User: Fold this.
Amino acid sequence: MIPENKKTAVINALQATFGTSEIDDMRQLTAGLSTAIVLRIVVHGRTCLLRIITRTDAMSAPTLEYACMQAAAEAGIAPKVWYANVEERIAITDFIDTKPFPLDKARAIMPALLKKLHALPPFPFRINYLDSMEGFIQKFQAAKLMPLNITDELFRIYNRIKNIYPRDGSEMVACHNDLKPENTLYDGEGLWLVDWEAAFLNDRYLDLAIAANFLVKTDQDEQVYLETYFGGVVTEYQHARFFLMRQLLHLFYFITFILFGKKPEDADLKRPIPLFFAYHDGIRNGDITFADMNSRMQYALVHMEQFRQNAKLRRFEDALEILGKGNN
Assistant:
């Protein structure tokens, strides 16, 4: 489970953390799409998580990842960090023994935790999310991966949002940026965020939108969710910006899962597309995983359809108008 070229570094990490290199028990955790090797280890009766970063390309940024993880751990948002070596790309943290996370608790705890995260000193800047999205869209369009009668409609909608969504940086905060269920661990009392590989300075509404995919199903859910986060009355501007970020996220997930999933021509566009929230309930419950390439392709289509349907709502036009006025 431990790569040969990392065994010496792992021994050094264990010695520094526990005073021994003997591991009583070890098993690999395979949830998620990260390329990192994640191991549950038991040493001297203490259960910890050993994470070995294997990426060495330009997108790998262990210095940033560990800095964000340490800041979050010190704030009680992430598990305690026992060891972190940037050069060797190895970290040891507390292991969270997860318990079922009821939706009503999740809706109350998650926005409060995000408020705490976003109040941390700003994380380092890495990329502009909207600029990065634009780059993925250009790559997608150039590759001509799906019929133009489908994608042209999507990009017309996107351009309307892009031309109005604020880029002034006023909402840039410390963000996790990857709040899927396997990265949000509930221990029966509190919630912990793990896997800080994608963390950097970003628009607060992105974290809010990602978590909302699994938690916010109705207008009432949204009201409570945002009231908890903002600590009181939510303005129409905040509702509008949250709504439009959710639409940008739908498109981004559609594009990235098509680009990096199975061959796009294998997508069965005539097959019924699952309902958005039912599909996310399946992800949250562990019934759907993205180890299967077919699930990744289906997930792309789920987001595509939600994006198309939401763009037909009166709320979409209202949100564009509200952000166009620029009064937050």
About this structure: The first helix runs from residue 7 to 18. The CA atoms of residues 243 and 303 lie 14 Å apart.
